[in-house]
Amino acid sequence: MTQPSPEELQQQAGKLLSQVAGYVGVRTMDIGLRLGLLAEIANHPQGVTAEALAKQTGLDPLYVQVWCRAAYASEILELGDDQAFKLAPHVDKLLLDRDFPGYIGGIPGIMVQPEFFDLFAENLPSGQRIWWDQCSPAFIQSVSETARPFYTRLIPGGLARVPGLSDRLDQGARILELACGAGVGLIRMAQTYPQSTFVGLDGDAYSLELVADRLKEIGLQDRVSLTRSMLEEINDSEQYDVALINVSMHECRDIDKVTTNVLRALKPDGYFVISDFPFPDSTEGCRTVPARVMCGIQFFEALIDDQLLPTQAFVDLLGKHGFRNVGSFDLTPVHAVTYGQK
Q1: Spatial separation of the C-alpha atoms in residues 235 and 258, rounded to whole Å
Q2: CB–CB of 243/273 below 8 Å?
Q3: How far apart are CA 342 and CA 125, in angstroms?
Q4: What are the distances in angstroms from CA 311 to CA 114, 214, 221?
Q5: Where is the Methyltransferase domain (predicted)?
Q6: Phi-psi region of 3 (alpha: psi -120 to 50; beta: other; left: phi over 0)
């Protein structure tokens, strides 16, 4: 067997250590978001020293200094005059602005939840699966936070790219959101399309409680109703002008049955819109940064006995079930939309 050269060993070691460095960056972002360090630094565009940051946040000075150095090393922070730290370019938008279409501030928090890698490792020998009702409230909230920018991109910009759909929504439509979760999308749609009414459907009672409380808080309960049901149990007939599902179609226990149910529930010419991750269609396509993030998501998806799917799988699914005018487009490298009409 040919012995590797020192250069080859060094190159491979660098690749592996870069993964460890990336882990440090994820944990550093999570700490900075959870404990308000990044938000406080954003209040000081000219920079703030670690000592001053510790005073402002009421945190331990040594710990804050350690965190600041790690955040600088991970290129989350920049270092200015007098050892003053400030946010690296665009970090305020990407990590702190929850309404920015490119917001990724929810990702670090969900990546450190035990439902991701820890539970996967624990269940790896047995292959035991779980379901959403076995996930913690903290995890449910984290999922809602990561889904938020998908809705920001989809409503109204993404939906406007589906031929004929914007006019239907503006004129007033009855819309079903499948797997509505904590209601981020329902609320955004209700505020964007005031002439329309909405039904949010989800199988998780805790998520629906969150939605109900939020709807009452902002006064939308008269235009949005909620139903607890599994997607496979939908039994409506020609009730809706639009059915929408965001980052959840891949989780269907029986994806063909759900698609059949949706087709039956739609009125003639009704739209079915699937907003989801565009997982690569081959293993060879998994070495891009977006694909690596999606590979991380697959650890949790395996726990609930499913996997992210390529966009073409959704296109083929709608075509197989008789939808017309089927099409798809990418909004970002991690966000694709597939649509069709009854």
Answers
A1: 10
A2: yes
A3: 44
A4: 28, 32, 34
A5: 170-278
A6: beta
CATH number of 6-96: 1.10.10.10
DSSP-derived 3-state class of residue 11 = helix
**Fold that domain 117-341 belongs to in CATH:** Rossmann fold (3.40.50)
List Cα–Cα distances, 294 to 129, 248, 280, in angstroms.
19, 14, 9
Cα gap 321→242, rounded to integer Å:
16
Give the start-to-end residue ranges of the domains of the chain: 6-96, 117-341
Calculate mean pLDDT across residues 180-208: 93
Residues facing 224 on adjacent strands: 198
Instruction: Tell me the two tokens of residue 24.
Output: 């440090």
d(CA 187, CA 215): 7
Phi and psi at residue 168, to the nearest 5°: -60, -45
**What is the pLDDT, as a whole number, of residue 1?**
66
CB 304 within 8 A of CB 323: no
What tokens were used for 68?
A: 């600041």
Maximal CA-CA distance, the chain: 73
**Amino acid 141: pLDDT:** 87
Average pLDDT, rounded, for the chain: 96
Average pLDDT over residues 256-264: 97
Find residue 233's DSSP bridge partners: none
Where do we find the tokens 């239907």?
168
Bridge partner list, 31? none
List Cα–Cα distances, 167 to 161, 175, 176, 196, 284, in angstroms. 11, 14, 17, 11, 41
The CA-based dihedral angle spanning residues 86, 92, 95, 101, taken in that order and rounded to the nearest 10 degrees: -160
Token pair 């490119």 is at which residue?
A: 102
